[in-house]
Design goal:
The complex is a heterodimer of chains A (246) and B (259). Chain A is mostly helical. Chain A contains 9 helices and no strands. The longest helix of chain A has 35 residues. By secondary structure, chain B is an alpha/beta fold. In chain B, the strands form 2 sheets. A 6-stranded mixed sheet of chain B has the order 6-7-8-3-9-10, with helices on both faces. In chain B, strands 2-1-4-5 form a 4-stranded antiparallel sheet. In chain B, strand 7, helix 6 and strand 8 form a beta-alpha-beta unit. The chains are: A mainly alpha (246), B alpha/beta (259).
Chain lengths: 246, 259
């Protein structure tokens, strides 16, 4: 088990994630008199916008994973297609899935709960753009891990999102998080993006300062993701890991 | 004559095993070269390095003047690759699959190239077939058509006729010879079928334990090793290689004990 640490996730990371997510929702509601009214918008707004990052990430990650599952990676690697062209193509193709998935969530929220996400107005545009970019850059991390660790890291394609979700305060302000994990939340661009969403829901307009921090942390994290991916691709080629897929 | 491939001093080590040990390999424009050697000789690792999928620990690779890894994209524009183990998209028709790869290579006259390729290997009826409907021989032929759509200067084939019946293997050889003659494509091919290599290749490079141990025309190599044919040379070299490996292992064990 210690040679395959990802096997420990079921008994460590996921239980922790659950308790942090639901504990923080509880802490938010219990610690705020007006939380009951706010929670409705925060939860539905959170889940609709969460699907932007989720669908963006999953489209790119699974697009790459499908190449490995069908043992097609070598076919792709020996074409003139450059690495960035492949990722960009997968991301753009994934936009179709993103529009379908997020559209379905938004329409369902409107029809069943009369929650219209477009009421948030123009502020949705920069927040959505940041969430889209973060989804893609998380996918770059996932691809890097799969290149390095092989099929054992595939679970990250889905699992990593459930780590990011509670830390980003998708459904509650990050003040509701336990003190010990709050510093992690502060380095995630998603924390600021969802904070800006709540400001919009509260009717306080577009919080450009918070959106600016989200954009800056997105740029930083993008640089880290690209460096990581390039490094992992180098390791992949140096250690001959292509033979796992041929 | 120009080089389409020039590799110098290729070295690759996995953990403590040296898979490729100082391989020099050149292929001239339009030349047909066989890369031979027993299992574990380093053939596939060498091919993967030439294709940029594995990076060498040492050495240099130049394809049509483009040096890897920096010029990988430009080099791959001039290379086609197919192997018996390469998959085809199962949920696409053969024509759709070939069109997709033609577009990836920027082929302008895709439809004409697909028709000509399928015709060359005598499988025009497969254009509408789904990937799942193909036999292993048909998959091999389609894979080679895919690898030649963009008129590569160098066609690299890893065991293309493994597990094919003699009729399909003949079709592969005939199609490849026609391709090399009509389009001037150079060929670098690995195979365990020595008869096939003798019929197809003008030059043969023998690998053993990661090193080149013979390089010449099939007749020159059979004379060099005083054997009747390449199969005899292959068996001789495989046995010599196995004895060398055993001696090396014994030496290592003795060194370990004395230490």
């Amino acid at each position: 088990m210690f040679r395959s640490p990802h096997r420990l996730f079921d008994v460590t990371i996921w239980p922790l994630v659950d308790v942090i997510l639901f504990g923080s929702i509880g802490a938010f509601i219990a610690g705020n008199e007006s939380a009951g009214a706010q929670a409705f918008g925060y939860l539905l707004g959170g889940v609709v916008l969460w699907h932007i990052i989720y669908q963006a990430q999953i489209a790119v990650s699974t697009g790459f994973l499908e190449e490995t599952w069908s043992r097609n990676l070598l076919n792709i690697m020996i074409t003139p297609v450059k690495e960035w062209e492949y990722v960009a193509g997968t991301a753009l193709f994934g936009l179709v899935k993103l529009i379908l998935g997020t559209g379905l969530v938004a329409v369902t929220a409107l029809l069943l709960f009369s929650f219209d996400v477009t009421d948030l107005g123009l502020g949705l545009v920069p927040i959505g753009a940041i969430l889209l970019a973060v989804g893609w850059l998380i996918a770059l991390f996932v691809i890097g891990f799969v290149l390095r660790f092989g099929s054992g890291a595939e679970a990250l394609a889905w699992g990593i999102m459930f780590v990011v979700m509670p830390l980003s305060g998708v459904f509650y302000p990050v003040d509701a998080l336990p003190d010990v994990v709050r510093p992690l939340a502060l380095v995630l661009p998603t924390t600021y993006a969802f904070d800006a969403m709540r400001t919009l829901l509260d009717g306080d307009g577009i919080d450009w300062g918070t959106i600016g921090i989200a954009a800056a942390t997105t740029v930083g994290l993008t640089a880290a993701a690209l460096l990581f991916l390039v490094r992992m691709l180098r390791v992949f080629r140096a250690r001959g890991f292509i033979t796992r897929y041929s | 004559m120009e080089y389409v491939l020039r590799a110098r001093g290729l070295m690759k080590e996995y953990k403590r095993t040296r898979a490729v040990d100082g391989v020099d390999l050149e292929v001239m424009n339009g030349e047909r070269v066989g890369l031979l050697g027993p299992n574990g000789a380093g053939k596939t690792t060498t091919l993967m390095m030439l294709l940029g999928a594995i990076s060498p620990d040492e050495g240099s690779i130049e394809i049509c003047g483009h040096r890897l890894p920096g010029g990988r994209s430009e080099a791959m524009q001039r290379v086609g690759f197919s192997a018996g183990y390469m998959p085809l998209a199962e949920r696409l028709r053969v024509g759709e699959f070939l069109r997709m790869y033609g577009e990836l290579y920027g082929v302008l006259d895709i439809e004409a190239r697909i028709d000509a390729g399928l015709e060359r290997f005598r499988i025009p009826e497969l254009a509408e077939a789904m990937g799942t409907q193909l036999s292993s021989g048909q998959r091999t032929l389609v894979g080679i058509v895919k690898a030649t759509l963009h008129r590569p200067s160098l066609l690299v084939l890893d065991e293309p006729t493994a597990s094919l019946d003699p009729d399909v293997a003949l079709r592969v050889r005939t199609g490849l010879r026609d391709l090399c003659q009509s389009e001037g494509t150079a060929l670098l091919i690995t195979s365990h079928n020595m008869v096939e290599i003798e019929r197809l290749c003008e030059r043969v490079v023998f690998l053993s334990a990661g090193s080149v141990i013979a390089n010449g025309t099939p007749s020159a190599i059979t004379s060099q090793f005083e054997r009747d044919d390449l199969e005899g040379v292959f068996i001789h070299l495989a046995q010599v290689g196995a004895e060398q490996r055993e001696r090396a292992e014994r030496r290592t064990q003795e060194t370990d004990h004395s230490a």
